[in-house]
Amino acid sequence: MLSKRTLTEFREHLVGWTLRTIDDLFMNHGIISADVPPERLPGGQRRSLVEQYYAAIDFSNPRDVQRLLAVFEDILIEIPEEYASSREKLLTYLKRDGFDYIDKRLVSQKLEHAALKDIAGGDIDTEHLQVYLARMAAALSDDPSLAIGSAKELAEATMKTILRARAVVFDETADVPKLLKLTQK
Q1: How many Å apart are CA 22 and CA 54, to the nearest integer?
Q2: For residue 99, which phi and psi values (nearest 5 degrees)?
Q3: pLDDT value of residue 86
Q4: Domain segments of the chain: what residues?
Q5: Dihedral, CA atoms, 141, 146, 149, 153, nearest 10 degrees?
Q6: DSSP code, position 80
Q7: Which DSSP string do the residues of 18-63 spell out, in sequence order?
Q8: For the segment 110-125, what is each residue's pLDDT rounded down to a tens digit?
């Protein structure tokens, strides 16, 4: 989901930050550094520290990737205006990886799809849910009411998808609270 180039660019950007700030960035999002053999670490304390945090992330797990994206969001927010070109460079690499930066949040339909599959329990079809995600993303700044309505529809469609995948019998006309109770069971 994130290319080696994107990870390297963020790591290189952090070279100018303090070790304490780097620790705080990752630990604030529940990422604990992993032990990496010294011969596999790049030169420099900051580069090595970032690589130790990267090593703690399972890049095939959407939740881990979302936590790392939260770190990247914090980095992008902290970049001063006089270094806007650095922010744009980082955003260019994220864009290549399929991420958009909307309202200071990194979003990706591919990641959302993977997260839904993970939550729903594996090999189920969640492609149809992308319609709701796309509608929400498109309406976010221009039509917040449509974005909110689409979020409700997405929640309902997601619960129905999970229930069908688990072969749970339910009333197709059930409201969201009833669907939620069934899905939670």
Answers
A1: 12
A2: -110, 140
A3: 94
A4: 4-102, 109-184
A5: -100
A6: -
A7: -HHHHHHHHHTTT-------GGGSPSSHHHHHHHHHHHT--TT-HH
A8: 666 566 566 555 555 6
For residue 11 the two structure tokens come to: 């790591």
Instruction: With beta carbons less than 8 A apart as the criterion, state whether 62 and 115 touch.
Output: yes
DSSP secondary structure code for residue 79 in this structure: S
- Residue 124 tokens read as 């189920």
pTM over 0.85: no
Name residue, tokens 């705080």: 24
At 152, which amino acid appears?
K
Instruction: Say whether 77 sits in a helix, a strand or coil.
Output: helix
15-54 residue pLDDT tens: 999 999 999 999 999 999 999 999 999 999 999 999 999 9
* pLDDT (average), residues 156-176: 85
Strands 100-102, 105-107: parallel, antiparallel or unpaired by DSSP? antiparallel
